[in-house]
Amino acid sequence: MSVRTEHRGRHGDGAVRGAAPGAGPDAAPALGPRRGATRRKLFDAAVTLIAEQGFSATTVDEIADRAGVAKGTVYYNFASKNVLYEELLRDGIDLLSASLRDAADRAVRVDGGTRVDALDAMIRAGLDFIAGSPSLTQLYVAELWRTNRVWQPTLQSVRGRAVAVVEDVLRDAVDVGELTEELDIPLTASALLGMVLVAALDWLSFQPHRSVEDVHASLSRLLQGRVSPLRAD
């Protein structure tokens, strides 16, 4: 199961905020194609195994075996299992953030939609991403509730970057008068992202017969009803 990269900035002329992938102080150094492919295989193996049997029960030997590489290859790419998992979370959530940002930019700058349209496009992008990486999403949601992991600072950092993508669109919507200035932007952004994560996991776990179009339509109606545009007096 593949986890399929982000940052923030501001476009001029009122466009949705965004920047080139990999920008910013937390950007990872560029890797050669071969090493990048190896790390991807290790990420895929680790996320599947940890989802199946838990972090503590998963060994480096098992990760190497599932990825089809030697155990030394794991340690060549990552100093420890903890580091591998930390980088896995960073990589996955950065990819989710990039997909949300790209969907919002496309909705406004390419399709000519409103900022609420951009939020709706982000919901669909989030559902598509989670449908393709359910194990990663499950692990991310589970780790948010833990406080004793060494990678908690990294998790908080990448969570903040994902939420900031949504905050930027909400802030733009307020700036151009689409949404009320009374909107609590940080809390609303967290709520929207959380809605997509939890609803998608519930969909995949308990309502797998529903299509992504059906789930998106339901969340879209919720968005339109709860984050309502300003109304003329």
Explain this structure to me?
The structure is a single chain. The chain has 233 residues and is mainly α. Helices cover 67% and strands 0% of the residues. The relative contact order is 0.13. The N terminus is likely disordered.
Structural class: mainly alpha
User: What's the gyration radius in Å?
Assistant: 19 Å
Distance between the termini: 51 Å
Helix content: 55-70%
Strand content: under 5%
Order of helices and strands: HHHHHHHHH
Shape: elongated
Instruction: Give the averaged pLDDT, no decimals.
Output: 84
Query: Describe the biggest sheet?
Result: none
E-strand count: 0
Number of helices: 9
| Weakly predicted, low-confidence segments | 1-30
List keywords for this structure.
single chain; 233 residues; mainly alpha
Summarize the entry for a quick read.
The chain has 233 residues and is mostly helical. 67% of the residues lie in helices and 0% in strands.
Detail the topology: elements first, then pairings.
Blueprint lengths: L32 H21 L6 H8 L3 H7 L3 H30 L4 H18 L1 H11 L7 H24 L9 H22 L5 H15 L7
